[in-house]
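Hi everyone,

Forwarding the result from last night's run.
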Amino acid sequence: MSEKVLEFITKRRSIRKFTGEGISRESLETILKAAMAAPSANNARPWQFLVVTDKAKIAAICRAHPYAAFGVDAGAVIIPFGKKERYKWFDQDMAAAAENLLLATANLGLGATWCGMLGEREAKVHSVAGLPDDVFGFALIPIGVPAEEQPSRTQYDEKRVHWETYRS
C-alpha cells in the first residue's frame, strides 16, 4: 500500500511543454474538487479559483508572468485566489489546495507547473486575468496535455531527517 501512495505522489512533476489540446470540464472539476479537499485552518477555506480555457486569454495571462510564458500552449490556466485581507493561515491553506490540485492533475495524466505570484508578478497577472481589486492571486497554474515526459521521482534525502532529536 505504501508503494501506491508514493507512486501517486511522485507522478507530480513540473511540466512546461503542452500539446495545445483542451482539457475537459470533467477533468477540471475533478482537479478543483481535489484542491478543495485540502485541509484548512478553522475550516476557513479561503480559496476561490479562476479557470481560464480560452486560448487567447491563456496566452495573455501566461505572458504576463515572467516565468509562465511556457504555458501559452496549455489547455487551461487555474489561478487560486482569495481576499486581499488574508487571515493568518491563508498561505498555508492555499498551498495545501494548490498541491492537491497538482497531484490530481498528474494522476489524470495531465501536466502542470505552479508559478508563484507576489508583487509585480501578481499585479500584472491580476490585471490581465481581470480579477477584482479586493482579491489576491496566489499562483498561476498552466495545465495541459503533456508534450514532454518527466520520470517519477522522490527527492528523499536521509541527511535532512532528524529522528527523535536534531543532530547537526
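The chain has one domain: 12-147.

Cheers,
N.
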